Write the structure tokens for this entry.
Amino acid sequence: MGISSHNRSGHHDRQLDPKGRFSLLVDWRPPIGESVYFVQVEVEGIPALRVFTQTAFDRKLADIDSAIDGTPAQRDRARGILFGAAIESKVNDQGKLTIPKALAEGHGLTLPGAVRLVGRGELFEIFTPENGAAIQALEEKARKNDPVIAAMLGF
């Protein structure tokens, strides 16, 4: 897999304003006019909002369509579940992304308040500051204690 100029990496703290908006890092912004999709997930048992770029969302749909383990009905159901779980949004002209208020508050985010962004390549995840620290600690533990992961990473 090649490296895109729009890969998102690192852990970054941001501030939500009272309307749920935050400034997205310049390198993380999708092309102008392109959608992003919020999906509630759990990462190692920790609640997160996963933000798919259009490319990542399209790739997930293609993965569902090409899944050999599922029947056509199961693939249709999976596509429907993904679309039903996703909330579409766009980055505004000032580079801000808005988390809908009900989604933010249902996810434990405070408006206004802090969030932790974690880059995941074509997508990124949003955590509360406490959960962001917890996921970072779990990932560091896996890097140190899982020899397979440590060998894959090489650091």
